[in-house]
Amino acid sequence: MAEEKESTSIPLSQAENGGDDPEDPAKSPPSSPNSSTRKACCFVLQSWVSKKFMTGCVVLFPVAVTFFITWWFIQFVDGFFSPLYERLGIDIFGLGFITSLLFVFFVGVFVSSWMGAAVFSVGEWVIKRMPFVRHLYSASKQISAAISPDQNTTAFKEVAIIRHPRVGEYAFGFITSTVTLQRETEDEELCSVFVPTNHLYIGDIFLVNSKDIIRPNLSIREGIEIIVSGGMTMPQVISPQERFARQKERIPLNRMM
């Protein structure tokens, strides 16, 4: 008899609730309209806050990166001459940075003269005789020559678009030189196109027929920015130079008419 009483006994909490399971959705009371409206408002507010937060991150990220790199560059350049001023007892932040800029400016002025060019050529001759340093110097000189304001024979000539690696796909590159391929029937004019594969430091060289090259209306600086940024600065419309020239010729005619 005692065992039957224990098996048929019901807990007091279940007896008060009438034996209903509060977690059962079929037996739970229906939600009121106010609670559903409150949940919808919370969802809209949460999505609006997250969207505005991401917008702020997108806006502030390039600003923060630019500020960080600029600040690091100022401290790096300032460190060249700031120890000299510290020994002289002058502690002014930014004075070393200004001195470095003036030093670079006067180096450019000095190298532009015949005496500076002679001194620079001697130093370059010594560097090119060093086993490992000459390769680093040659690579860095080619990159700096590409963005140099002076027209150098080793600089990038034009921005080029070639069909690579298969039909229907294109690659950005830079025309570095022209080559004449001598054949039995006729000579073929080829262009040496440098296609970067790792920013501007490493790339492939292709010899492409000059007729098969698309020459866009982009400057060398714009082409470098497109490659370094991973294509994020790519213009929405790219026109060949011939078409752009024809469009410029049509504009004055339309104005005259």
Automatic annotation (TrEMBL):
The chain crosses the membrane at residues 53-74, 94-127. This is Protein LIKE COV 2. Residues 1-37 are annotated as: Disordered. Pfam families: DUF502. InterPro entries: COV1-like. It comes from Hibiscus syriacus (Rose of Sharon). Keywords: Membrane, Transmembrane, Transmembrane helix. One of its GO terms (cellular component) is Golgi apparatus. It comes from the Eukaryota.
